[in-house]
Design brief:
Strand content: 5-15%
Helix content: 25-40%
Shape: elongated
Mean pLDDT: 91
Distance between the termini: 39 Å
Low-confidence stretches: 1-12
Largest sheet: 3 strands, antiparallel
Number of strands: 7
Order of helices and strands: HEEHEHEEEHHHEHHHHHHHH
Number of domains: 2
Number of helices: 14
């Protein structure tokens, strides 16, 4: 779900966040898909979106639920104070969730539940109330390496460790600049996030599909056609993904991802649409278009295109892309 990297350095001690806090209540919301999300990778003409991004933004759905629970908690206690968090504070959500008994951190560094597999959103309620602690869940991964071996970019240097710089979710969502050239071919048609390590977990055989309607995948996000996405301008991008976490990355990064997917398809039918992006206002998009076209066109046709566009390019990064492809 999104960026899977978790660096302890950026996650503060809960007491440093709120000295009066006495307990943290961790909650998990199941967002299990109806089917294996990796099926979306089978058609190179379409893009694969992470399960969590196929419906509405989970932040906007979970936070009101946490607030309702928090209000009920205070009403029952008759005193105290609470704060609710959904990825909005420097809390180590996954270790806290494991300590609360919701599951354990698997070898892919994400939460695993015996009841819901790998498909849990986490939310936290911090409170000044004195509450009894639950029993922590133990690790049930055993000798399994399915999640580690499923990663398309080999982002796990060792079990329980992740190199975010190689994670497809980081590369397609968090990374603001061009995706490293050596990793682009490994991304395939994943245009927003990656679920491979989550979907590979054997504990998913016990999982059930999520019941929150707003988190359910919208039909147009199951397997969106790349040709329908690559020409989106900023206004059309926002209109295409209303209430979606995808809007957070912005149009330019998203179109970068779509162009990488087009290049990876090897289908020359994408060349015209990719070529149109050579005139895009965004250097990030133009550089991705160069890379895609180098893989979609015959060498002679690419060189002809380069002779027209490369000399006029003013952005150093885009010129570097032309140079790297031998087109300048």
């Amino acid at each position: 779900m999104g960026w899977m990297a978790e660096t302890l350095e950026r996650r503060a001690d809960p007491l440093a966040l709120w000295p009066d806090m006495r307990a943290v209540i961790m909650l998990g919301l199941n967002y299990g898909p109806e089917q294996d999300p990796r099926a979306a990778q089978a058609d190179a003409m379409t893009g694969a979106l992470s399960v969590y991004a196929r419906g509405e933004d989970y932040h906007e759905i979970i936070k009101p639920k946490l607030k309702r629970i928090a209000r009920a908690l205070l009403a029952a206690a008759g005193e105290g104070d609470v704060k609710v968090f959904v990825d909005t504070a420097p809390l180590m959500e996954k270790p806290l969730a494991a300590a609360a008994g919701l599951g354990w951190q698997g070898k892919h560094t994400n939460m695993v539940s015996r009841a819901f597999g790998s498909w849990l959103f986490l939310g936290a309620i911090a409170t000044t109330l004195e509450l009894p602690f639950d029993t922590a869940e133990r690790d049930h991964c055993g000798s399994c390496r399915a999640c580690l071996e499923a990663c398309p970019t080999a982002a796990f240097p060792a079990p329980y460790q992740i190199d975010a710089r190689r994670c497809v979710s980081y590369l397609t969502i968090e990374l603001k600049g061009p995706i490293p050239r050596d990793l682009r071919p490994l991304i395939g048609n994943r245009i927003y996030g990656c679920d491979d390590c989550l979907a590979a977990c054997p504990w998913n055989k016990f999982a059930v599909a999520g019941r929150e309607v707003k988190l359910a995948a919208r039909a147009e996000n199951e397997a969106p056609r790349l040709l329908d996405l690559v020409s989106l301008d900023d206004a059309a991008f926002r209109a295409r993904f209303p209430k979606s976490p995808i809007k957070r990355v912005g149009r330019d990064r998203f179109i970068r991802n779509v162009l990488i997917a087009m290049g990876n398809s090897g289908d020359a039918g994408f060349a015209e649409a990719a070529g149109a992006r050579l005139a895009d206002p965004s250097p990030l998009v133009r550089s991705a278009a160069v890379w895609a076209l180098a893989r979609l066109l015959p060498v002679a046709d690419f060189q002809t295109l380069a002779s027209r566009h490369a000399p006029l390019e003013e952005d150093a990064e885009v010129r570097g892309e032309w140079d790297a492809e031998g087109g300048a």
